[in-house]
Amino acid sequence: MKTKPLGRTGLEVSIVGLGAAFIGIPDPNRAALEYDGQPGQMQDDLGVRTVHAAIEAGCTLIDTAPLYGRTRSEEIIGRALKARPDLAARCTVTTKVGCLPDEFDYTCDGIMRHVEASQQRLGLDTFEVLYIHDPMDVPVEQVMGKDGALGALRKLQDEGVVRFVGIAANEPDTNAPYIETGEFDAAVVPEAWSLLNQLAAQRILPAAEKHNVGLVIATPVERGLLATGPAPGTNYLARSFSQACLDHVTEIQTLCRDHNIPMAAAAIQWCTRHPQVAAAIPGARTPGEAAENARAGEVDIPEAFWEDLAHLVRHFEAGVDR
């Protein structure tokens, strides 16, 4: 699989990584339950096999957080890495701090506790990147202060526990001001950059270009819509799309079929064509999904296709239930 540097970190990562919010959940309807705060849907063995499948298929970036599965995602990844040290040596695991299932704590002391707990769950002593997670409704100056989350991460940098610091907010309007400060080396960007969503073009991409912030795009296939096309009765995990948007996706799907290119490959690789975007991290529940996502990053897509697709790249407002 192709790799790109993660902004100014210089870390080389595969253009498709593993988003680990739903690893080990066999049923997509149960993924929706997990998303809605009903834990216990993740199956450890299935999750471990999903992690292994992703790395074996060429994914060198795994993104997780204590929030995912109420810490189960980190625990499963830790098991997977311990079971296969050969695969662990091939990948970079990033996690997040500040936001736990039952606790939001962006103080220096809180972050230190979070990092120590993640080290234990993942079986890692050091991290290439740690992201401050979802600091919505928290004053920026509090998060960025010496006694706040960024101060803690700077201290951990001095101690050699983490090399680079990042921001990962689920809301683009929260992500943007942090990226604009220039203090962050990388950012996870959900709900802001896809064939159907160009919110990132307003503030996030210009700031990332200015400060050479490496971007990792979450939700690149819009909760599966840009992988399968519209399907009646599908639960898009707190997302709602207008009929006009669904009809537009059908047009994209038709173009992909005409060029014999999987729509998921087009959606994912479109995201990573931007110079500041190092990787996309579609979520995978099972080994099959992990391998399929990785294959999407290996498809050779000719420039003629991108030229034909250009007029179909359009921003749609998608309803998001929070």
Can you describe this structure?
There is one protein chain. The protein is an alpha/beta fold and 322 residues long. Helices cover 41% and strands 16% of the residues. It has 14 helices and 14 strands. It has helices spanning 28-35, 44-56, 72-83, 85-88, 108-122, 140-144, 149-158, 172-180, 204-211, 225-228, 243-259, 263-272, 287-296, 303-309, and strands spanning 3-5, 12-14, 18-19, 61-63, 92-97, 99-100, 103-104, 127-133, 162-168, 186-189, 214-217, 239-240, 277-280, 319-320. The strands form four sheets. Strands 3-4-5-8-9-10-11-13 form an eight-stranded parallel sheet. Strand 6 (99-100) and strand 7 (103-104) form a beta hairpin. Helix 2 crosses helix 3 (72-83). It is globular and about 55 Å long. It starts with a strand and ends with a strand.
How is the secondary structure organized here?
Layout: E1 3-5, E2 12-14, E3 18-19, H1 28-35, H2 44-56, E4 61-63, H3 72-83, H4 85-88, E5 92-97, E6 99-100, E7 103-104, H5 108-122, E8 127-133, H6 140-144, H7 149-158, E9 162-168, H8 172-180, E10 186-189, H9 204-211, E11 214-217, H10 225-228, E12 239-240, H11 243-259, H12 263-272, E13 277-280, H13 287-296, H14 303-309, E14 319-320
Parallel strand pairs: 3-4, 4-5, 5-8, 8-9, 9-10, 10-11, 11-13
Antiparallel strand pairs: 1-2, 6-7, 12-14
How are the strands of the biggest sheet laid out side by side?
A: 3-4-5-8-9-10-11-13
Average pLDDT reading = 94
Total strands:
14
Order of helices and strands: EEEHHEHHEEEHEHHEHEHEHEHHEHHE
Low-pLDDT sequence parts: none
Question: Span from first to last CA?
Answer: 35 Å
> Helix content range of the residues, please?
40-55%
User: What form results from the Cα inertia axes?
Assistant: globular
